[in-house]
Amino acid sequence: MNNIDSDSGQALEPSPDNPSAVPPAIPAKPSVLRARLARILAASGVRTSEDDGAPSHFGFGVERIDAALRGNAKADGLPRAALHELHAENRDDRTSAAAMALLMAQRCRNLDQEARPVLWISESGEARRQGRLYPPGLAELGIDPDSILHVDAPDAIAALRAAADGVRSSAMAAVIIELAGKKPKGLDLTATRRLSLSAQKSGTLSLILRSGSDPDNPLPTAAFSRWSVAAAPSLALEANAPGHPAFDINLLRHRSGLYGLNARLEWNRDDQVFREQQGAPDTGAVPALAAVRTDHQGTRAA
Fold first, then answer.
1. Which of the two ends of the chain, N or C, has the fewest CB atoms closer than 10 A to its terminal CB?
2. 109 is in which domain, residue-wise?
3. Among 130, 148, 141, 143, which residue's Cα sits nearest to residue 245?
4. Where is this region: Disordered (predicted)?
5. Which residues contact 62 (CB under 8 A, 6 or more apart)?
6. 49 versus 184: which is more confidently predicted?
7. Is residue 184 within 8 Å of 154, Cβ to Cβ?
8. Beta-carbon neighbour count of residue 72 at 10 Å?
9. How far apart are CA 191 and CA 189, in angstroms?
10. CA distance 5 to 14
11. Torsion, Cα of 239, 241, 243, 244 (10° steps)
12. Chain-centre distance of CA 173, in angstroms?
């Protein structure tokens, strides 16, 4: 993910000049991935989001935004049992988009009485090039690294298959599938309809995270909502301490026909809530998002 340096940490260590210095992840065959997930999902069963007693919708925690997202629904925010899509606005916003996906999953997970894990699925080749989840960075965001199950898929098709297995199960609080490029192989209306229908049946929040895509001209999908995410300047805290991670979000599509909703949000890890940032100078600076790292063996969250 993009290189972001500040006093509070780094989002991603730069790729080494010698790629061979980074121990490569061993791509798992689709059959191995399915077997690995089967051990987790076998006894989980299927249920709707209402069956677990938690709210059917989750929000950012910002009243203006959550109320606007109501659309035709009876509750504020976004439906949990649905597929949503997040695009990094630019190449350098990949870290921010990934962090937003994780924090949306965390907001949803905080409603979960069973503290179920989040399944993160990425392509192994892209993870080696761009970086993997970094447990100390997750902790900086207020996310327990032990709550993340990370699957390295050999390619986009295997990643989509693994995601389909995860979304069909109610063992996961959320499933995040990270796909790179403008046209990931296998990503189409059929595949995303399957994910969407499975999410509705199981009550599992499903997020497609896109990097290297064109948010203004995206591939058609069955996502309930589509967002673009960019890094935003953070505001210093008392004694000039580094501020909270900040994001510019823009709603590109919503099943109820909403569009044009945008905001600058900052994440408060202590309260586990977003707040709308007011009066931030547009300096071009970006906050630290210490969520990903490439130069350390075994940095994937487990």
1. C
2. 36-293
3. 141
4. 1-27
5. 263, 265, 274, 275, 276
6. 184
7. no
8. 9
9. 6
10. 10
11. -110
12. 12
In DSSP terms, which residues pair with 150 in a beta bridge?
120
Residue carrying the six token digits 């500040």 = 6
User: What is the rounded CA–CA span in Å between residue 25 and residue 69?
Assistant: 40
Domain count, the chain: 1
Q: Provide, for the chain, the percentages of residues in helix, strand and coil under a 3-state DSSP scheme, each rounded to the nearest 5.
A: 30, 25, 45
**pLDDT digit string, tens, across residues 106-161:** 999 998 878 899 999 998 877 677 778 889 999 999 999 999 999 999 999 999 99
Nearest of 244, 245, 243, 235 to residue 281 by alpha carbon: 235
CA 183, CA 179: separation in Å to the nearest integer? Answer: 9
Residue 84 is encoded by which pair of tokens? 């949503």
Question: Is 10 part of any domain?
Answer: no
239 belongs to a structural domain: yes
Separation of alpha carbons 264 and 283, rounded Å: 14
Query: Tokens at residue 127, please?
Result: 């993870």
Structure tokens at 254: 């919503």
Asked if the structure places residue 19 within a domain, the reply is no
Would you state the structure tokens that stand for residue 50, as one six-digit string? 């209402």
* CATH classification of the domain holding 235: 3.40.50.300
Question: What is the distance between the alpha carbons of residues 103 and 123, in angstroms, rounded to a whole number?
Answer: 21
The two structure tokens encoding residue 221: 């999908």
| Dist. CA 286–CA 302, nearest whole Å | 28
Q: Is residue 16's pLDDT more than 50?
A: no
Rounded distance, CA 79 to CA 83, Å? Answer: 9
Q: In whole angstroms, what is the distance from residue 210 CA to residue 100 CA?
A: 12
Q: Are strands 83-88 and 225-231 parallel, antiparallel or unpaired?
A: parallel
Q: How far is the C-alpha of 111 from the C-alpha of 119, rounded, in Å?
A: 17
